[in-house]
């Protein structure tokens, strides 16, 4: 007989190597990747994804990579069939620029706030919503326009991902996360919108070590944890002229 | 006749079926390891008491807490920390707090693995009525409609019939619906029933009642296939 | 000549008495009121609103008040023309029950998650969105139903308020807020969705005293601050059988 | 002839119009006290340097920071703390950090009082083109469309004409639009122009240029009513 108890413990998340954490990503997967500028790019996870070899990926990120590391390297290695982002253009985005000009990568340009809201909607079970953003511009072409209170809005659809790859500062074993300053950016909503969020964390702590009031991503949105205490900032790699692999 | 059999013969007939706590216990045995669960007020929330030791379950409450447990003793409550039933609760290690829109993003977005709720009426197509018995009185819905349409699985814990003996499992709900096609399992005092492809599948039955007697209390055909568990809950 | 400088200070919020903070609420205003159960009800602000005298209010709150204090007292005093909430029924909601049965108050029952998302949409500039919640139920009657990926969803509209009244634990002078446990509930999204969010706070601190990583409501969403260090929990008042005024 | 006049006569003609820093300065003088402001990359972000002392302004950046200021010196940057232009920034007392969806909720929800951006073309109906000059190259929009449709006011800081001398203020934009009916003011090297009810209203003009000369550089009629300020920026 089972003794009545409330001793069931909370859900712990697997702590894996980057290799194991990404092993099941299939060709053709949609992968949401956090980061904005140098802040929050999960460089170690992206490099592990390059090693893993998945192809024909659809990537969602605000940008299209810089230099020869991280997302730029993934693109250069021709693993990305399509990218959904707000700002793919940059002097240092030569990998994307080359692939785009050669017609080897599809681009969906989305206003940054619409991109964020579409991802948040994907995580929140909202299939579509209306926004004023892009009304009257080429980015609204082909989309439904609808008036509310006499103003036109464009209908936008949710974005979901098979996986998210994000970087955080601190994770507990139950997957609760906090971030470092503006490295937070897209990570919390990408964890929400992915079937499996793979999180690389600088610090790994026990449940209870993060004040419940300060948790940014509750563990329910975290799938797998990769402990990367020595993670390198993408901006630093870029300035060093690093190249992966 | 042994003394025990003698006592049984002279006592009033043993009540057939599970107690409220036993119904919660039976549902608790099926809560999957590694799941995020939202328990409705009443019998559903009792289930937390009976989840087998060591099974990993995290509880969610609509008003913005994940990872809560029992509250402090009466008189020591912190009324800033309550569950959706407005009861004082406590935080377990690894808890998190968030606002209402984020809380329902968890529900609507399909992140809650399981919601266990009460029921007025359930139909074999998965339709559920549990928010108002007809159109009288003040319509109050709370989070029920969000839970039944958002959680990945919806189980109901309910008496098999109303106090008046009317069936709660029926071909089609007559009360205003809470959600359509949402219920996947029903735990009653008499049976465990899975709702699969538009039919009620009997999976377990209480001791002392036959399938025919159960069918008589069920206003929709029961599919009876394979082995049917005879429920053996502990005394609760 | 102005010397080039970046010395402009951030925006400070007015710290007022409850009376002054609510003085300009007109009859007919829509007021979003935080709180769920006993947690987070801005009792002192609601009592000041009773004193202020505004009538024909539309109130948005998860419930419809308990006992004879706070929102229940505002309803009993017949200041509320309409209430938008998810769960108005309670043994202790006699003020609402009486007014409702007498036909003196209009009720819009909204599923709790739809209520939260409509308020969040109001704050986020999203006029309407789609949700699965309530499809096939009486609460979807008269609303647009639309299929996405073969499933039906109902269109819901944003809720905005003229004012929000919420309670927090700590506010800095720039209006950054943190809350106490589940008293957070609707407050952050109501601050977003109101033209003027009036916040009662137990603690009032200087800018910089709240870690930027842990701010729950950024100051941009806060309109006015009322310092109520001795605020009483509604649940405590209710259990004492208190009555206001 | 005085020595100074002599020097002026022999030097090349004094350049008419404001420098980039002066344009930013002129816009900064108008930033309202108590406002939340988002400054675009380039000349707009220079404006933060010239807001009059004591005026309360809080700066927002799309990537999730409110209340930032200048970054640390070169070599000491924290690359986890950048603005939308990917420059290292610092946090001021009272700063807050939030995720991208919350950041754009601030923008889309009308909570940002003022966005100041660059411009390729501006029409008197408030239409703005500032994200791509034609349909060539890689389309990259960033947060511009969200800002122009969400901020309560949208000001542009831009040279009055292109380097080739073509008008940027014109009857209708020919480049792909960023937003419709959004621009409320334009600060150029030659003028300050308010966009009101479908017309360009001249409010201030640079020293050394006549209204007629300004009109010749503007491909849409200027409304000239009331007193026109002659801009007197400091040397910057």
Automatic annotation (TrEMBL), chains A, C:
Signal peptide: none annotated. One of its GO terms (molecular function) is CoA-transferase activity. Keywords: Transferase. Transmembrane segments: none annotated. The keyword Transferase applies. InterPro entries: 3-oxoacid_CoA-transf_A, CoA_trans_fam_I, CoA_transf_BS, NagB/RpiA_transferase-like. Belongs to the 3-oxoacid CoA-transferase subunit A family. This is 3-oxoadipate CoA-transferase, alpha subunit. It comes from Albimonas donghaensis.
UniProtKB/TrEMBL annotation, chains B, D:
The keyword Magnesium does not apply. The keyword Cytoplasm does not apply. It comes from the Bacteria. Keywords: Transferase. GO terms for molecular function: CoA-transferase activity. NCBIfam families: pcaJ_scoB_fam (TIGR02428). This is 3-oxoadipate CoA-transferase beta subunit. It comes from Albimonas donghaensis. The lineage of its organism: Bacteria, Pseudomonadati, Pseudomonadota, Alphaproteobacteria, Rhodobacterales.
């Amino acid at each position: 007989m089972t003794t009545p108890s409330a001793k069931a413990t909370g859900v712990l998340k697997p702590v894996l190597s980057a290799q194991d954490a990404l092993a099941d990503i299939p060709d053709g997967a949609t992968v949401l990747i956090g980061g904005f500028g140098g802040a929050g790019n999960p460089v170690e996870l992206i490099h592990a994804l390059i090693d893993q070899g998945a192809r024909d990926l659809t990537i969602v990120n605000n940008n299209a990579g810089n230099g020869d590391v991280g997302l730029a390297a993934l693109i250069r290695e021709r693993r990305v069939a399509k990218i959904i982002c707000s700002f793919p253009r940059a002097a240092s985005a030569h990998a994307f620029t080359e692939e785009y000009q050669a017609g080897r990568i599809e681009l969906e340009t989305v206003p940054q706030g619409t991109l964020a809201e579409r991802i948040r909607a994907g995580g929140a079970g909202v299939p579509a919503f209306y926004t004023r953003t892009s009304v009257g511009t080429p980015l609204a072409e082909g989309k439904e326009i609808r008036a509310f209170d006499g103003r036109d809005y464009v209908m936008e659809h949710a974005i979901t991902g098979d996986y998210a790859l994000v970087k955080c500062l601190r994770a507990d074993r139950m997957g609760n996360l906090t971030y470092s300053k503006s490295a937070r950016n897209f990570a919390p909503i990408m964890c929400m919108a992915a079937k499996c969020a793979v999180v690389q964390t600088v610090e790994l702590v026990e449940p209870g070590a993060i004040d419940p009031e300060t948790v940014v991503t509750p563990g329910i949105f975290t799938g797998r944890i990769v402990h990367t205490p020595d993670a390198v900032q993408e901006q630093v790699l870029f300035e060093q002229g690093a190249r992966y692999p | 006749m042994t003394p025990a059999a003698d006592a049984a013969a002279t006592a009033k007939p043993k009540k057939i079926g599970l107690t409220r706590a036993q119904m919660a216990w039976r549902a608790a045995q099926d809560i999957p390891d590694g799941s995020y669960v939202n328990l409705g007020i009443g019998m559903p929330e009792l289930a937390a008491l009976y989840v087998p030791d060591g099974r990993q379950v995290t509880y969610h409450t609509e008003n913005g807490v994940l990872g809560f447990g029992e509250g402090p003793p009466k008189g020591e409550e912190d009324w800033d920390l309550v569950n959706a039933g407005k009861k004082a609760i406590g935080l377990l290690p690894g808890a998190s707090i968030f606002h209402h829109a984020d809380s329902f993003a968890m529900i609507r977005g399909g992140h809650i693995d399981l919601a266990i709720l009460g029921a007025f009426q359930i139909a074999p197509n998965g339709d559920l009525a549990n928010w108002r018995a007809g159109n009288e009185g003040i319509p109050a819905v709370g989070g029920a409609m969000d839970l039944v349409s958002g959680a990945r699985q919806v189980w109901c814990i309910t008496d098999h019939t109303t106090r008046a003996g009317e069936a709660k499992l029926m071909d089609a709900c007559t009360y205003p619906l809470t959600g359509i096609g949402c219920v996947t399992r029903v735990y009653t005092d008499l049976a465990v029933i899975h709702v699969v492809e538009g039919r009620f599948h009997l999976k377990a039955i209480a001791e002392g009642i036959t399938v025919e007697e159960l069918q008589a209390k069920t206003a929709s055909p029961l599919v009876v296939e394979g082995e049917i568990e005879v429920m053996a809950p502990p005394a609760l």
